[in-house]
Amino acid sequence: MHQPGECSSARSEEYSPGTYNAERLPFADGEFDAVISTCGIMFARRPEAAAAELARVCRQGGRIALTTWLSDSNLFKMFLVMKPYMPPPPTPAPSSPFEWGRTERIQELLGQAFDLKFEKGTSYYRELSGEAAWETFSTGYGPTKSLVASLDDARQAELKRDFIAFHEGFRTDLGICVPREYWVTLGVRR
Questions:
Q1: Would you give per-residue pLDDT tens digits along the chain (190 residues)?
Q2: Which of 33, 108, 183, 190 has its CB surrounded by the most CB atoms within 10 Å?
Q3: Counting Cβ atoms within 10 Å, is residue 52 exposed (0-12), middle (13-18) or buried (19+)?
Q4: CA of residue 155 relative to chain centroid, distance
């Protein structure tokens, strides 16, 4: 419950929404009561640095809420379809974002700073067809869109074929329905 005017005063505080580097957040120590990441922090190149920043900006007693794709989820399997078309990773290779899909790894990254609890969840990605999924991802999802732009026409066609075939593996009478498993991680800052 909020007191009258409390929410409006909170909204008027100086805060500029935007995109920030999870490894170097431009906020003061303990600035936030709550920090939320929906399948975002897991894509930081240096998970240890991102986890340290998350802990730094969350005040003592504050809360975090994260969702991260499971390391064996269908989203991970979709990335396996794309992997043969990706350029070799730089040396040293960055950590896999799917490391965040194991509770043991999340404990390693955040367990010193937070009391953590976990719950599995599933979202369902629905489209009329694998072709529709291709159109959605190749034109609107950053990793897939960037990959497509980096390929010549022949490789694009091969990726498209494989991507559509993957999604058609989840065909139902109504189209496609891909269950995508994730962890919900809730934490209280120590």
A1: 444 444 444 444 566 677 889 999 999 999 999 999 999 999 999 999 999 999 999 999 999 999 999 999 999 999 999 999 999 988 888 899 999 999 999 999 999 999 999 999 999 999 999 999 999 999 999 999 999 999 999 999 999 999 999 999 999 999 999 999 999 999 999 9
A2: 183
A3: middle
A4: 26
In whole angstroms, give the CA distance from residue 166 to residue 174. Answer: 17
Q: How far is CA 121 from the centre of its chain?
A: 14
Determine contact, residues 156/90, Cβ cutoff 8 Å. Answer: no
Asked if the 31-189 domain carries CATH number 3.40.470.10, the reply is no
In sequence order, which residues have a C-beta less than 8 Å from that of residue 137 and are 6 or more positions away?
A: 144, 145, 163
